[in-house]
Design goal:
8 helices; 31% helix
């Protein structure tokens, strides 16, 4: 960058220019830990300012859960959760959320009150619909990871890796257990590693690897547990999101 041109920029713009340049520099030259964090945060911020598609895959033991989504124009977001052969999907906007059911699109308030629901099994669409409002989008998820990582370093392949403290790794590993088991569980050798990739100044891939030994109750032999969460970002700036008319009507737009 031309130093003369940079010197004429306002201070705030100079700072932003430096951080974005740092994100690009990740691909070409080593950076120190503080610069790495700033560059990754800038890459997450740039992602949050555009439209994109994503897939997050969580693998733990023999279980695989997949979340897919699209961030479109005008604040519309489509999110789908896939577990086994079941797929739940919904839309979110500032005005509210809707989820697809066998009876059409519903808002969370369209479902029967939990206390008076006499169905033989809870409708998973209801819980999914309620979770949409607080669902953490990929840029926010990456930014939260950055606040929890104890160490950051640049790898030879251009990726950036970081690690959790054992205590934070334990908390994340046990978060996949039911609450009643979390309270009684003990762990050993917990580890957590995160890797990031940047392309064109934006985060496009990151992976969280957690591992350790867990004993779910007193006197029980510990067993190895691992969980890998991988997020892949695609079609930055070119993602198209079609919103059904019924969804627009339900949310009131």
């Amino acid at each position: 960058m031309d130093n003369k041109r940079t010197d004429k920029l306002p201070l705030g713009m100079k700072t932003a220019t430096t951080i974005v340049a740092g994100a690009v520099a990740l691909l070409t030259q080593p950076l120190v830990a503080a610069e790495l964090k700033d560059a990754l945060q800038a890459a997450a911020d740039r992602l949050a300012q555009t439209n994109y598609s994503w897939t997050t895959t969580i693998r733990s033991g023999f279980t695989t859960n997949i979340t897919q989504g699209k961030v479109g124009a005008d604040g519309w977001i489509w999110i789908a959760g896939i577990t086994g052969n079941q797929m739940l999907e919904g839309y979110r906007r500032a005005e509210g959320t809707v989820v697809k059911t066998d009876e059409g699109w519903k808002r969370p308030e369209d479902f029967p009150n939990f206390m008076f629901d006499r169905s033989p099994r809870p409708d998973p669409a209801r819980a999914f619909g309620r979770s949409l409002a607080s669902f953490q989008l990929p840029p926010q998820h990456a930014a939260k990871l950055l606040t929890e990582l104890a160490v950051l370093k640049q790898e030879h392949d251009g990726e950036v890796s970081g690690s959790f403290t054992p205590a934070d790794a334990k908390g994340r590993l046990l978060s996949g257990f039911p609450s009643r088991l979390r309270r009684a569980a003990t762990t050993a050798n917990t580890m957590g590693i995160v890797r990031f990739r940047i392309k064109d100044g934006m985060l496009v891939w990151w992976q969280v690897q957690l591992s350790g030994s867990v004993s779910e109750r007193s006197g029980q032999a510990a067993r190895p547990v691992s969980r890998t969460t991988t997020t892949v970002i695609e079609n930055c700036g070119t993602t198209k999101l079609e919103v059904p008319d019924e969804v627009r009507h339900k949310i009131g737009t």
